[in-house]
Amino acid sequence: MSTSQALKSRELYTVGWIAALPKELSAAIAMFDEQHDKPLDFEKHSSDSNSYHCGRIGNHNVVVACLPHGIYGTTSAATTASSMLFSFPNVKVGLMVGIGAAIPSDANDIRLGDVVVSLPHGRSGGVIQYDLGKNHVETASGSDHVLHVFERRGTLNTPPQALLNATGSLEARARIDGHQFPGLLQDMLRRHPRMGKSKPRQPGYVYQGQERDRLFQASYPHMSGLGCKDCDPALEISRDAREDPLIPEVHYGVIASGNRLIKDALERDMIAKDSGEDCLCLETEAAGLMNSFPCLVIRGICDYADSHKNDDWQEYAAATAAVYAKELLSYLDSADVTQTSRAIEVIEQLSEDVHKIRGILNDVAQTVDETQADATYHKVLGWLSAPDYFTNYHEALEQRQEGTGLWFIQGKAFQRWKEDPHVFTWLHGLSGCGKTVLSSAIIEALKQENTAACTVLYFFFDFRNPNKQSLDGLLRSLITQLYQQVPNTRLRLVKIWRSQTEEIQRLDYSTIFETMACHAGRVRIILDAIDEAPSRRHLLDWITSSVDKKAYDFQLMVLSRMEEDIESAFLPYLVHQHKIQIQKDVIDRDIYAYVNRRVHHDKTFGRWGAEPRAQRKIVDGLTTKASGMFRWVVCQFAVIEKCLDYPSLSEALDTLPKTLEGTYERMLKDIPEVNFPHATTLLNMLIWSDQSEPLKLKEIVDAIAVRADRNIVFDPINRMPHARDVLRICSGLTLVDRGDIEPPSMRWARELAHARATLQPWPKDWEYQPAHASGKVSDPMEWTCQLAHASVKEYLISSRVLEKFRLPLMEEIAKTNLAKMCLAYLSSPGVDTDTINKFHLTRYSAKWWSIFAMCAAPGDRSLHMLMTKFFKSDTERFARICSLTEPQASVGTALYYASYFGLEFGVQDLLKRGVDTNILGGEYGRPLQAASVRNHTRTVQILLAGGADVDGVGGKYCTAVHAASSQGHFETVQVLINAGAMVGEMDAQIAPLRPGWRIEHSPLSTAHKIGHTQMLGIILNTYMNDPRCASSIERLSPTLCRIRTPEYWVYLWKRTSRIAPHLNVEYQGGQWTATFP
């Protein structure tokens, strides 16, 4: 065998060869006419653990892989083959070559060393899986005799047509001239003489002799010893001697494949009978390949699948199979291979076809009409409840000036990203440099390509909206987009949706998305502003895991600021050319176009129309200092607009802040002292309330009017007369969304749109003369307010904020004041659910007071007084206000809500006033359950000390320990058990109270389900040591049988002798099981 340098590309390998054993791999390598190094562009798939050997046989470049050493079976074979197709994607035909066991019969005289080749026969494609099916019982016609029948299920693919053509040509030629076994075997031994040498337990790749090929009657078992010298010759089946035993015969037909080695002749014959096919051979890998690797199976016979089997013939059988494969490749037409689809495409098409057929059958079976399908479509979308993905995209797109971002869209990096599979690119730049606008431009460019083979998914993280700040929100959005754009992914999601029950509470959205994406072709994903996710660890783990696994065909692009945690997470997965810094110079070109357009066409700057020097000074002053910060430029226009003469203009341009934070500091300094309280209230509401429901101006107006430290807390006379004046309080730091007038958020949306029209003047005043389609101005009270940019929030909560604002904006102080504001407002006369239209802050206060109070400064006397006053308010009014946040749930008492939110002072105050700790009400039934489900351990202890029934039943989870365990709250579970909670016995008492309650809802089962080993340990310890649990141990057997942690089973075995001596614990087949005789 000659050697050569590596081929240029892995695309040149079109034949894949799978071996199961090292001895089969040796035979395969020995068939190479020329051996190659790995191709120059070879890049192993990240999940690929295969070892590859490359070479040429005849006119074909062949890649060979072997199953992991010591592992066999259909699953392992499928994994090996699938990995090969990812690492060598141009493989078109496959060969599974190795040893097998003959199924001898009167019709099939198969000898050791013969070769069996899988070919379609009857209903079979050439391979059947004998252990895939169903046992059922039938009664013989006309009698009471019962038959146990095995019904085989499923079908496996036929080999590729190119291989079938070659097989037919080889078989026809062999009938004339015979096979080339002797010559090819001799050539192998000549080139590799070591293969012909025999060693102890290594007989060599040579014929073992006719006298060692013995076949016994099926009913006669092997006696003893390694050989058959003690076996009765009288029970050996007599067969005619062959003319030339050194020339193996080739048999074509069906091969039976399964996951077990068969060493029993009776079982062998039963498999052949049950298969319904004339099977020639048994083996353990092929069934795993046929639907994941289009191939022909070639088996050299090494035994008869009986108890007399030994390993002496394995090397020779591996050699004869490999020789046949080599001879077959000489008949494989290169033109046929060229016209054959890539194996991976065949598998994908098969999968798609199968799912299409299943979808059609499902439609027919269920007679689903279009109306029902449409209803299901919308129900699934409602079930996902994904945050919208289009609002931020369209807002950013409106901001984009024509030509912006072309430096990237027309650049090499973007073209490379679109061409490479499984590519990951990270664009990073400073805050305010225009990354979000660039994201929208990239998405628009991808959509305009209109490539049917690619699906574009995107998501904009948003500091203002908590639904757009988490991995959960991202995945639900991506799943929704796939569901909407790729119809053949819908059946999978609908199936998951239909399977949802109360028992399935923790959906793995990552797995759902991956499953759908595998069937969506190429998926292009754009993620913007991931730095605006406050907690990024799980998000970064998902991104890097997706890049690492390459489980589906994707191209991923992420845009963010340069943050240390992001960079450290991404760097191991990025090549240099895919880490791109957004450079200042390319952004400055876009800034110049924007500034130049505005200065020359905006009426605000019309006073400088006859003063080219002033216009040049504005353009030069802004563009030279911008340093790639688009946001900085926009902020400066607010100052320049006010300049009425050249000296003031010149001074303003000369004294512009150098940084964005310097700009924000100047804006804070410009707030008049009289508006300071209003500014802190407004900024705190925008900073510390999530913006999933944006604040309306009418809510802000009422908030500013609250005087929490006065006798009359709220008087409508204190409201601002004009709601729009809210925008003047923190000008430049906040923005308004006018609903029907213009898209939410930014002033740029309209300003940049005007920049596209060179002859159209800019509006004089954007605030009062906006461009809109309807011509109607909405009620300013309904407008919503938000922070202007993520950088605004970051500055305001940083230690660098203007000192005057530092303390009022600190989280603890801010939330204490906001909690006081909400409680004072809710306690005001006239505030009720039927007066929301008059008292606009009611709903906001009902939602946020407790959330703010949980984080408030401990020991704040005025807050405690307001809380006490609110809890003492009219019971029915209190319940109505609480119902605003829980409209669907049973309304709880003051103690219930104080416990639910962990307000320790409120709980203690109510207990001092003699409130019943076990009073019923609320979604979770009792105060103790409410505190337990939220893991307020200290509140739980206060309630227990105050007389709460640790085993009291009520609400969604029935008992406190069930509530805490359902959420994985180990500390609270431990407190409850230490207080005497009955874990096992309560399960039996709950069952008759809750229809549908099963033992699977028990704390033990829950702890196992969520994988919380600490909690599992303490609950098992309770079962083992608390005599009250004895009667429930036996009922828990289904749960215990599912626990696979050996340590706990050993522990269980040692500790149950006195409680459950009849419990049997065994370790078999790698699993621990518990049974009760």
TrEMBL record:
Domain Nephrocystin 3-like N-terminal, chain residue ranges per copy: 403-561
Organism of provenance: Aureobasidium pullulans
GO BP of this protein: nucleoside metabolic process
ANK repeats mapped onto the chain: 956-988
PANTHER family: AAA+ ATPASE DOMAIN-CONTAINING PROTEIN-RELATED (PTHR46082:SF11), ATP/GTP-BINDING PROTEIN-RELATED (PTHR46082)
Protein name: Pfs, NACHT and ankyrin domain protein
Keywords from the named record: ANK repeat, Repeat
Gene Ontology molecular function: catalytic activity
Record-linked InterPro entries: Ankyrin_rpt (IPR002110), Ankyrin_rpt-contain_sf (IPR036770), NLR-like (IPR053137), NPHP3-like_N (IPR056884), Nucleoside_phosphorylase_sf (IPR035994), P-loop_NTPase (IPR027417)
Pfam families: Ank_2, NPHP3_N
